[in-house]
Amino acid sequence: MKILRARDYTHMSRQAANIISAQVILKPDAVLGLATGSSPVGVYEQLIDWYRKGDLDFSLVRTVNLDEYLGLSGSDPQSYRYFMDRHFFDHINIDRANTFVPDGLAPDAAAECSRYDALIRRLGGIDLQLLGLGHNGHIGFNEPDEVFTKGTHKVTLSESTLRANRRFFEREEDVPRFACTVGICDIMQARRIVMVVSGADKADIIREAFFGPVTPHVPASILQLHRDFTLVADEEALIKV
């Protein structure tokens, strides 16, 4: 495990974007595993800036998103497909046919999860996976559990995750209770993993996840075992390590 200490959110975003841009330059048809939420937005903004300056070409890149809410269409402003379009895909020269997000309206969630696992295998696996970190240690929507869930699966979101997501919805009852998420096995099989974490509110879970035991009760802790894992975090997030 490598830790890159950043001054602040902007510096953190630039450091992570450096790693991703190098991956794209070295392998133009790379498969990128992407994440949503507030943490990676700055990374996407930096990559867009370099694309506009002519430094990056995404025309051959394939992307696989970590998760999607069940019950939301890709056109819903709260869906993760919409998020990715708005914050990244709309601003670069990527082929939309090469951007993949689970189908939140699939009539059979189990079948959709199996299809998504098969898709990742067909693409040859993930070259670089970008992650954020939940306050309870979740990665993607892999919540604390008794075991590490292997493949893509339907998950019931924890109360802490529902509370964190509440700010994006007008009413509490509008917050989706279920999601489809890429499993721990697919994440761990990525050839390289980069996690971005910012803010003092994440200091406790960073210490627990990366300086404590590996346990499914803290899903991110398994990243300690990955052969090429880089944590990029700002000073506030690293204040307790």
Mean pLDDT: 95
State the helicity in percent bands.
25-40%
Largest beta-sheet details: 7 strands, parallel
| H/E element sequence | EHEHEEHEHEEHEHEHE
**Contiguous helical run count:** 7
Radius of gyration: 17 Å
SSE blueprint:
Elements: E1 2-6, H1 9-26, E2 31-34, H2 41-52, E3 62-65, E4 67-69, H3 80-87, E5 99-100, H4 109-122, E6 128-131, E7 153-156, H5 159-165, E8 178-181, H6 184-188, E9 192-197, H7 203-210, E10 229-234
Parallel strand pairs: 1-10, 2-3, 2-6, 3-5, 6-9, 9-10
Antiparallel strand pairs: 4-8, 7-8
Description:
The protein has helices at residues 9-26, 41-52, 80-87, 109-122, 159-165, 184-188, 203-210, and strands spanning 2-6, 31-34, 62-65, 67-69, 99-100, 128-131, 153-156, 178-181, 192-197, 229-234. The protein has one domain (2-234): 3-Layer(aba) Sandwich (Rossmann fold), CATH 3.40.50.1360. Strand 9 (192-197), helix 7 and strand 10 (229-234) form a beta-alpha-beta unit. 42% of the residues are buried. The protein is globular. By secondary structure, the protein is an alpha/beta fold. The mean pLDDT is 95.
Briefly characterize the structure.
This protein is 30% helix and 17% strand.
Which tags fit this structure?
Rossmann fold, 241 residues, three-stranded antiparallel β-sheet, single chain, 7 helices, alpha/beta, globular, 10 strands
